Amino acid sequence: MTENFPNLLKPLDLGFRTIKNRSLMGSMHTHLEEAPNGFERMAAYYAERAAGGVGIIVTGGFAPNIEGGGMPNATMIDSPGDIEKHRLITDAVHKEGGVICMQILHTGRYAYHPHSVSCSPFQSPITPFKPKELDEAGIEKQIEDFVRCAVNTREADYDGVEIMGSEGYFINQFICQRTNGRTDSWGGRYENRIRLPIEIVRRTREAVGKHFIIIYRLSMLDLVEGGSTWQEVVQLAKEIEKAGATIINTGIGWHESRVPTISTSVPRGAFVEVTQRMRSEVSIPLCTSNRINTPEVADTILAEGHADMVSMARPLLADPHFINKAKAGKSDEINTCIGCNQACLDHIFEMKLVSCLVNPRACHETKLIIKQTESEKRIAVVGAGPAGLAAATTAAKRGHKVTLFEADNKVGGQFNIAKEVPGKEEFAETIRYFKRQVELTGVELKLNTKATPEVLSVFDEVIIATGITPKTPDIPGIDNAMVMTYLDVLLDKKTVGKRVAIIGAGGIGFDVAEFLSHQGKSTSLDKEAFMKEWGIDLRYSAPGGLIQPEVEGSAREVFLVQRKVTKLGDSLGRSTGWIHRTVLKNKGVKMINGAQYNKIDDEGLHITVGNESQLLAVDNIIVCAGQNSQRELHASLEAKNIKVTLIGGADVATELDAKRAIKQGTIVAAAI
């Protein structure tokens, strides 16, 4: 047995086959499923993760029929041609020694098309279409389509399937009274409501035989009103085991739940106790999930008996070689998922291809290729924020001789600000990763060094990644002593009074508001406090695991003000913006939109909202109203005919856009 992470790397015997370790790559839809040349790209994407050592890969969800697809163009495995396309994936994964299961996902009322179906005609709060209520024959058809899909999956040489029975999708909709209003044999009593998942698993097992993996994704904690009780969840798990499932995977929360379950503010391994509680009820392996992003966390979860396997989805977007690095004792080299959702889940909502903020090659393996250079160059990178770090380490990996200049005494740039915000502590992991990459790639790092045109004139190419500076709005009295910038607050930790007005309600404004309203230990670092804040009861005293939240009051009276008349936080991520708004609302932060800034004086901030003049009598005013690019070097270098490229905030001054910065730095360095 390996000395490094022995519990994570211990083989798992399924009876008819052995899985090489206890890791499962959780299902993530990527939109490659519908993209041109998507199957070739998925083959490369999954093969890289198989080569990286993961135990079982579960694909993104594929629909069992047209009505079950999330979108009108949802991909299926319904014909001989489909089967051949899927073999591109399975062949590539098996060539790397991997095991891969296809997820069968029927979205039910969560479908974004008018042909959606469900057990009852109850429209979801997050989708625009009311589903058609299935009759008995329609339900039988859906079951048959699940089974046919599984058989086709086997024909495509997958090692198994995952049947998606959680997160509020089609099967889950039958199970819970919240969505099942039927009075026939598929509704009413719990035994009737769980007929669908049991029949699907039982008939699938009969059709595919004994030596085919069937994973059932069970909703162990619904986190919605009208959800299942713990006794009901246990009853279903036992029936699913009897029906022939090989593994039960843990699902947490419905998509319509107003409780965060995977964002960076959720504590690591927040829900593993639910899986552990189920272990005494069934004998087949249980897989736990949600916010497991390091091998240390994964190994501890397994060592403490919380589960038999751990599911990690986004961590394998961030670093496809996660498992092999852990096995080699190189966990400090893992590019850790920070749970930001900006390039994965938010891209799903925006109908974009999924990728990863910290790893822009994710899902672009055939497009963004990092290869050794044929002509070594001397390259200077100015600025060691996310963009500069990505550019410097990528160029050095390719064989260029790179010098990285940083005026500060540390690397990380704006991530040193982000990591100070309660709930964003994970951002420190990206700084740690890049610091290690600087060491490994041989980048010459010059801290406390301001690069001058004279110093840079000896380099073949210069990449400027000097980032941004806060913009000063044109408001009378802006030079008043009570006015501060977000850098004063988050970076320099200057003393802030008890009453505060924040000018600007973009991402930075929200971060400052959370920082100033918070008191005590961050709930993302305190599981018990997190559960209280969001009303989560892992002991299941009420159906769905929800109880009344207990919110700690704010450390300050905070006003969050913006000129725009739109909703505050409109620019925040689709999957996380509601979380930030809820936190600040619960903290009593007063949100003001449509404000005209009249002046600042010793009394405070004078504004007009509509036709009403107001005085916000505050101790301090924090400016979070935009940024300017730092690009003083650019013109002087061009005048010397030095090849120079601007990246990150030095190129485009926007909100602190690390996703664009890291991607741009990587792409530029890959092309030199």
UniProtKB/TrEMBL annotation:
<keyword id="KW-0408">Iron</keyword>
<dbReference type="InterPro" id="IPR001155">
    <property type="entry name" value="OxRdtase_FMN_N"/>
</dbReference>
<feature type="domain" description="NADH:flavin oxidoreductase/NADH oxidase N-terminal">
    <location>
        <begin position="8"/>
        <end position="332"/>
    </location>
</feature>
<keyword id="KW-0411">Iron-sulfur</keyword>
<keyword id="KW-0479">Metal-binding</keyword>
<keyword id="KW-0288">FMN</keyword>
<keyword id="KW-0285">Flavoprotein</keyword>
<dbReference type="InterPro" id="IPR013785">
    <property type="entry name" value="Aldolase_TIM"/>
</dbReference>
<feature type="domain" description="FAD/NAD(P)-binding">
    <location>
        <begin position="378"/>
        <end position="645"/>
    </location>
</feature>
<keyword id="KW-0560">Oxidoreductase</keyword>
<dbReference type="InterPro" id="IPR051793">
    <property type="entry name" value="NADH:flavin_oxidoreductase"/>
</dbReference>
<comment type="similarity">
    <text>In the N-terminal section; belongs to the NADH:flavin oxidoreductase/NADH oxidase family.</text>
</comment>
<protein>
    <submittedName>
        <fullName>NADPH-dependent 2,4-dienoyl-CoA reductase</fullName>
    </submittedName>
</protein>
<dbReference type="InterPro" id="IPR036188">
    <property type="entry name" value="FAD/NAD-bd_sf"/>
</dbReference>
<dbReference type="Pfam" id="PF00724">
    <property type="entry name" value="Oxidored_FMN"/>
</dbReference>
<dbReference type="Pfam" id="PF07992">
    <property type="entry name" value="Pyr_redox_2"/>
</dbReference>
<dbReference type="InterPro" id="IPR023753">
    <property type="entry name" value="FAD/NAD-binding_dom"/>
</dbReference>
